[in-house]
Structure prediction request, 271 residues.
Amino acid sequence: MTTSTQWQLARASAERYQRILTPAILGPFARALVDFATPQGQEQVVDVGCGTGAAARYAAKAVGYSGRVTGIDVNAGMLEVARALPAVQGAPIEWREGSAAQLPLEDKSVDLVLCAQTLQFLPEKLLSLHEMQRVVRPGGRVALSLWCAIEENPYFDTLVTAVSRHIGPETSAGLQSAFALSDAGEIHRLLEEAGFAQTETVIALHELPLPPLAEFVPRHVSATPMAAGFNRASEEVQQAVIGEVSEQLSRYQMNGRVQIPFRSHMILCKQ
Ligand SMILES: C[S@@+](CC[C@H](N)C(=O)[O-])C[C@H]1O[C@@H](n2cnc3c(N)ncnc32)[C@H](O)[C@@H]1O
Prediction:
């Protein structure tokens, strides 16, 4: 496990990511990105920074057996977990280790590039966007999701604040980094600089039901780059984090259930 702000999770953390984070938060947003990009039957799709493959799997179902999907990630642990999951009913998925800054794909070889909650972590954003343009066919599209500002995502905001206060900013940086590219103006300047002329943006709002927070918060943290710092903290400090998050979010809890709004930019760039 690392404290990386680029989400370089080791295999065990990648398994927790798939078991805890994907069903609760990342999966619904990966599905929303795929729906937003409206994949058609037979299309060839690449999921850049696929992680454990949530978007790739939804896309494989959407394009059907005659389509083709490739999931690309730099992290071998994430890809191992992706490969070990049961096959979906749809297009075959090829999992490839590679960098967004140097996609292992031919020019103009795919119809749709998906990049779900990943661009914000890439050190070479412009180069990576140029790579996405290079591999997409004329008439194809690039679909990106990026969290809206952390203040608009109360669960993440409260968790980052509590971890920073009780453990330290070097630990909360592991989650804070997910909001490094959240400003709509900044995103559009970057896309313009990369040469994307036609873009369509919406804000996806999903009210996600989470397990009781006293149980979910430590499980969630264990599946993020914050795990090492959190595990080093005393039991008392860990409980202080969990208590603060539960209390701050009590307005979203009712009858033992909790439902919290999450907001993400969804951006479709046409070639
Ligand atoms: C927050 S995860 C998102 C994973 C997945 N797209 C999802 O929605 O669940 C960010 C992913 O970006 C990957 N990543 C980071 N830097 C990368 C790079 N330079 N090239 C490709 N993938 C990268 C990480 O390994 C990680 O799997």
About this structure: The pocket of S-adenosylmethionine is lined by residues 6-8, 26, 30, 49-51, 54-55, 73-75, 78, 99-101, 116-118, 121-122 (CB under 6 Å). DSSP finds ten helices and eight strands in the chain. The radius of gyration is 18 Å.
